[in-house]
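Milestone 3.1: sequence recovery, worked example.
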């Protein structure tokens, strides 16, 4: 019964949040801080509805003062509500072009200044790469990327794709990993307390002076650091 009630409330919330986000986007279209505001509009009420607790250690992400590429593990659609709580100032994300047609959410996603990719069109992908480099270098704006490229609920991350690392190197900006404890298969939506999730940001990883030849080693290093952090958080959660 509680599950049904929560899902009904979440459905209403998704629509209301979409409308409010559209208002924000229409009032100041493509402002790079729209994404953070819209993320909060989705996240804060949803966490209350679900009675989902977050333990965050993301001061390094919050206090970082220059443009960067933020990489995070991607577990489920609930990431919108979980990670939306820690999106920093002037941060946009990369999303599939098809998102633009999702009612309410797609339109606000576009108006929030996020970058839409047509992954099946190489010319469009190259243009998007130029846009991300311009954004990182000259607009004092960070870009949030899920380097696995898709959702995966397991404790072990999928292999990373190169895009985020190529962007960071091309723009000469650091990479900040953000790690979320494994939660996708552990939520208890039908209980009063749905669960607890940990989020940690890791120290910034410099890319100055790196070239395309350094991408494989950079990817391996980032994934190893993130996996170690996720494993550590999962262990802490199991001991609670």
């Amino acid at each position: 019964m509680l599950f049904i009630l929560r899902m009904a409330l979440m459905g209403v919330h998704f629509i209301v949040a979409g409308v409010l986000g559209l208002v924000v986007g229409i009032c100041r279209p493509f402002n790079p801080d729209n994404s953070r505001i819209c993320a909060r509009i989705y996240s804060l009420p949803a966490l209350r509805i679900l009675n989902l607790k977050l333990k965050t250690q993301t001061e390094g992400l919050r206090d970082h003062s220059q443009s960067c590429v933020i990489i995070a593990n991607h577990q489920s659609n609930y990431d919108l509500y979980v990670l939306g709580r820690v999106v920093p100032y002037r941060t946009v994300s990369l999303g599939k072009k098809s998102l633009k047609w999702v009612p309410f959410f797609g339109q606000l996603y576009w108006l929030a200044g996020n970058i839409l990719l047509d992954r099946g069109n190489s010319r469009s992908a190259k243009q998007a790469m130029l846009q991300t480099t311009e954004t990182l270098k000259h607009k004092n704006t960070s870009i949030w990327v899920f380097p696995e490229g898709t959702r995966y609920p397991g404790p072990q991350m999928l292999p990373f794709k190169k895009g985020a690392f190529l962007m960071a190197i091309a723009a000469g900006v650091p990479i900040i990993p953000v790690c979320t404890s494994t939660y996708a298969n552990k939520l208890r939506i039908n209980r009063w307390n749905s669960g607890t999730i940990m989020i940690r940001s890791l120290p910034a990883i410099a890319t100055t002076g790196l070239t395309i030849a350094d991408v494989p080693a950079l990817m391996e290093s980032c994934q190893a650091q993130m996996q170690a952090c996720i494993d550590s958080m999962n262990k802490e959660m199991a001991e609670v």
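Strands lie at 52-57, 69-72, 91-96, 115-117, 142-145, 175-180, 195-201. The mean pLDDT is 90.
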